[in-house]
Specification:
Elements: E1 2-8, E2 11-16, E3 29-38, H1 44-49, E4 71-79, E5 89-93, E6 103-107, E7 111-114, H2 125-136, E8 145-149, H3 153-164, E9 169-173, E10 189-191, H4 195-201, E11 210-213, H5 220-228, E12 234-237, H6 250-255, E13 259-261, H7 268-281, H8 283-289, E14 290-295, H9 299-306, E15 315-319
Parallel strand pairs: 8-9, 8-11, 9-10, 11-12, 12-13, 14-15
Antiparallel strand pairs: 1-2, 3-4, 3-6, 3-15, 4-5, 5-7
Helix pairs in contact: 2-3, 2-7, 4-5, 7-8
């Protein structure tokens, strides 16, 4: 089968590798022919580093073909998961993030059936599922003031979900101007600035009750969120960190009764079902979010563009099948 092999920083090589055999599936695993894959912000540090980022800036050996891509839509070729049938079209996670390939083996628990129709926007159900699960951890948001740091595709989905959950106001902060998307994703205000400048500009009365840090992959914005949130407020740190330790002002955390929340998405099939239901009701969300669609043969160029945010560019989806 074909795959893209990450051979160094920001560099893919097309390769032919043995196809996984249906007879080798373990209980709970599913073999999927990939149709579309969404590039996630959490994939980008691995692409830039040429593998697993480490403190010294090197890379881990043995990067598998198809890495790093985990948001997938495809057709089930074989299944050892009773909840996923052969021939079904599914959306969800490639559990080893190796889906930049013709076929991928993944945990069936991270997949949900979808209807036919090869729309690239279907892949948005996976990041939206992550966002919905995260927002569940924030409790009752009715009447609360919320802010989102980072208005890429995940940040905009957070803004939309926070508004849907009843947040009184939702403010977005990003150095890239996302004003054109404010109305579609429920933002009251878009501030085109860095998180440090924004945090330092806030008075006691202007601090949000909830801040979602949706930038990721560096430490400064987490510290800025802790600085900016209102006393008694909550900071949600979204995404997979690429460093083992982040500096946190524990004095403020204790004295100001703050709460810092994070986590990975659990109950994946159930929350994917919720995300699909939301997208059926509000198809404009995915239509607005997916701005770039291209072939898997141009994966390096697509990943490189995704690493360079600009106005008008949000979600990039690759056509694989």
């Amino acid at each position: 089968m074909w795959a893209q092999q990450l051979i160094g920083p920001s560099s893919f090589l097309p390769v032919e590798v043995p196809a996984p055999a249906a007879g080798d599936l373990r209980p709970g695993e599913v073999l999927v022919a990939v149709e579309h894959g969404g590039i996630c912000g959490s994939d980008l540090p691995y692409f830039r580093a040429g593998g697993q980022p480490v403190a010294e800036g090197g890379r881990a050996a043995g990067v598998p073909p198809g890495f790093p891509l985990h948001e997938v839509v495809g057709r089930v070729q074989a299944s050892r998961d009773p909840g996923v049938a052969m021939g079904e079209r599914v959306v969800g996670w490639a559990s080893a993030a190796d889906a930049l390939a013709e076929l991928v083996v993944t945990a069936g628990s991270g997949l949900h059936p979808v209807g036919d129709g090869r729309r690239a926007q279907t892949v948005v159900a996976q990041p939206l599922a992550c966002v919905l699960y995260a927002v569940d951890q924030l409790g009752d948001l009715r009447g609360r003031r919320a802010a989102v740091l980072g208005l890429g595709s995940i940040g905009l989905l957070f803004a939309w979900a926070l508004r849907r959950r009843g947040a009184a106001t939702v403010v977005g902060v990003d150095p890239v101007d996302r004003t054109a998307h404010a109305a579609a994703f429920g933002l009251d205000e878009v501030l085109v600035t860095g998180s440090r400048q924004w945090a330092e500009s806030l008075g006691a009365e202007g601090r949000p009750d909830v801040i979602v840090e949706a930038v990721g992959h560096q430490t400064a914005t987490v510290a800025d969120a802790v600085s900016a949130v209102a006393d008694g407020g909550t900071v949600y740190c979204f995404g997979i960190p690429v460093r083992e330790a982040y500096p946190i002002d524990v004095y403020s955390l204790v004295r100001r009764n703050l709460r810092i929340v994070g986590g990975i998405t659990r109950d994946r099939r159930a929350v994917l079902g919720r995300a699909l239901a939301e997208l059926r009701e509000f198809p404009q969300v995915a239509a607005e979010l997916v701005t770039d669609v291209g072939p898997a043969t141009a994966a390096a160029e697509a990943f490189t563009r995704a690493c360079a945010p600009r106005e008008g560019r949000l979600k990039t989806v690759l056509e694989l099948g």
